[in-house]
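Work package 3, deliverable 3.1, input record:
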Amino acid sequence: MIDIWLVVEWVVKSALLIFVLLTGFAYTTFYERKLAALIQVRVGPNRVGPGGWLQPLADGIKLIFKEELIPANAYKTVFILAPILTAVPALVITAVVPWGTQIELFGRTIALGIADVNVAVLYILSVASVSVYGIVLAGWSSDNKYAMLGGLRSSAQMISYELSLGLAFVGPILLAGSMSMNDIVNAQRDLGWFVIYQPIGALIFYIASLAEVNRAPFDMPEAEQELTAGYHTEYSGMKFALFFMGEYIKMAAVSAIFATLFLGGYRGPFVDQYPLLGPLYLFLKIFLSLGVMIWIRATMPRLRYDRLMAFGWKVMLPAALLNVFLTAVLIIWRGW
Amino acid sequence: MTGDLLLFFGLAIVAVAAAVGMLASRNAVYSALFLIINFATIGVFFLLLGAPFIAMAQVTVYAGAIMVLFLFVIMLLGAEQVQQPGGGGWQRPLAILLAVALVVETAVLIFGGGASQAILPAASDYGNPQAIGMELFSDFLLPFEITSVLLLAAMVGVIVITKEDRKKPE
């Protein structure tokens, strides 16, 4: 029979993860504004609360009270559905990322992580491939040519970079001999971080994931100068907030996946003795990776659209294919 | 077991409703969306059958990649409004005939007792990525390679077609 406590454990862990992601989202925006301000020698938000620390709360309250507009000719159902379809994949994609080994609590052994499945990597890919819909449908249902163009651009970009992203996954899978995230992390305990074995793979993954979450320098769908705001031009209030949330949570999610695949996940010194260090190490790695994303946004200009597609297909994809080939040859030759 | 059964029937209703919705809706984009729901539910069916690999492949390939391209084409061509069914004179009787044949065959299989003997239980590691990989690269190597050649031919075809398109305006 189904163990009731197991169900409770899953629900609590899932609720905890969603809570962390949602508050994390709010403070990622704050982190971005502060760090970008630091890089660009500005002050950044400093009015609300001590040091500006209540700024995300103020933003949230402001967005709740904003008027929600739905364009007269919009396809209403899809228009409302689109922000949800953007935010939900961002929330569920992290379900397969482990946060630590396991802890003893109330006489139960609780694994730190929600789902340890043997197709974890494929799960990530399939959720990523479904997450395109929110943006495409938002663009289409708004009945606005800028939104439509933004949506189409974005979907073309995401499909193109998804290929390189998928191929970048292959390196860690081959090295660990498994598609389970836990196995990949454990393999890095014995072998060392996979970024050492897979420098090209890690770079490709990082670039492709930036494109996948529509971050600078790949933020073409939202290029203000040419497309006003791209696919979310017609969205306001909480619906806009959902798109915004989707983007920032996806940033955190791809950082978590990057850390798990290439930077040893929750592994770090003394993690076997003190399992609670695991989530802390993972958090630090995510924090650093987010910092690099913000750094890139604060310093890099946006790519032109044709260059972006050419780069995706003519540089990234061949490099990723070559990387897979070389990894496979090396593994057979050296017998890793 | 009852939990599984309830889940199955709930999903089955969703899948059938989505399929009917796909056929009935006037707007091609809505049709595509219903088809995506249908594909996703089929993915969950594979999960219920204990085949996670196939479930994920189903969602990634069909619900993800292929349907995105469908949507793309529908949106770019502006073909959202489906024309009233006027053409396809010979297709309709043929479709009815084939549908009846399918229903009769299914009925014979289910009620004729053939189903209980014909269906073998799946191997315990069925749907496990390693097992599928081993099968693909040992027993099914030739079909696998033929498929890859077919896909390569399709890719070459696409490149050739777009190349010719580009030359014309010059």
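DSSP finds seven helices and no strands in chain B.
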